[in-house]
Amino acid sequence: MPGLTGGRWGTPTPLRRVTAREGKNGGVTRASLEKQPHEVAAMFDGVAAKYDVTNDVLSLGQARLWRKAVAAAVGARPGEKLLDLAAGTGTSSLPFAASGAYVVPCDFSIGMLREGKKRHRHLPLTAGDATRLPFADGVFDAVTISFGLRNVQDTDTALRELLRVTKPGGRVVICEFSHPTWAPFRTVYTEYLMRALPPVATAVSSNPDAYVYLAESIRDWPDQPALAARMQGAGWTKVAWRNLTGGIVALHRGRKSDEG
Ligand SMILES: C[S@@+](CC[C@H](N)C(=O)[O-])C[C@H]1O[C@@H](n2cnc3c(N)ncnc32)[C@H](O)[C@@H]1O
Question: Which of 8, 38, 126, 199 has the most CB atoms less than 10 A away?
């Protein structure tokens, strides 16, 4: 299967405007996905206890490989300051802490943070909303967000907030579910998401509705070039992406210009 395990970093075509038809999500309407931020936070509060184990089961073990790829893309160095936004229980922050960087996991679900504090006492878990980050301008060497941007109601504001808190010349890495690039695989995958995922989630999760939302939100998320265009629109430069597992997940990276 082409590109199933990875791929090169691709770059978007020159910046273009997102048309009115594409709307705020680059080609989709969010249909039943208009969850208010407090509903999203409550949904994650509800799945917090079993979140990490459910992730491993539903991703068929791929989640660990995706986290390694994120760590490689961020390339955190000892002493650097990193923001891991929408960090949930802090599991996504662990590889950065292990590299000797000072990582701040930030999330707006108190349930996820509380669960994270039980497991990772050493992490400075911080409550904060992606659209109004509780940090000063230009404080982080790198900012990253794994499987969180899709859940933030206002994607563009979050992308601008990430840029604001990054130092001039700093970097961003976004890890998010995306769109498989090989059409036959895409069809099989979409079937898995829409049909198999909710029943499997019912068996392993405390809140299966959250996983119906997960399936729908993945299907309706912008594809790789559309997200790259959104990043450029928010002010990020040198934007590129790389597919993982045939495009089930994509890593997008970018830079804040040296001028700030
Ligand atoms: C699927 S979890 C990802 C957790 C973690 N990054 C990981 O990779 O396992 C998505 C997280 O996004 C958080 N989130 C959604 N909207 C947010 C917002 N506006 N501000 C901060 N966190 C948000 C949720 O509370 C949830 O913990």
Answer: 126
pLDDT of 20 above 80: no
Tell me the residue range of the domain where 85 lies: 21-255
Q: Which residues line ligand 1 (CB under 6 A)?
A: 37, 40-41, 44, 86-88, 91-92, 107-109, 112, 129-131, 146-148, 151-152
Question: How far apart are the CA of 106 and the centre of ligand 1, in A?
Answer: 8
Which amino acid would we find at residue 218?
Answer: I
Instruction: Decide if 14 is inside a domain.
Output: no
| Segment 88-117, tens digit of pLDDT | 999 999 999 999 999 999 999 999 999 999
- The yes-or-no verdict on residue 59 having pLDDT over 90 is no
Number of domains into which the chain is organized: 1
Domain CATH for 123: 3.40.50.150
CB atoms within 10 A of CB 233: 16
Ligand 1 centroid, distance to 125 Cα (angstroms): 13
DSSP for 88-119? TTTGGGHHHHHTT-EEEEEES-HHHHHHHHHH
Residue 183: count other Cβ atoms within 10 Å of its Cβ.
7
- Kindly state whether residue 34 falls inside one of the protein's structural domains: yes
pTM score, two decimals? 0.89
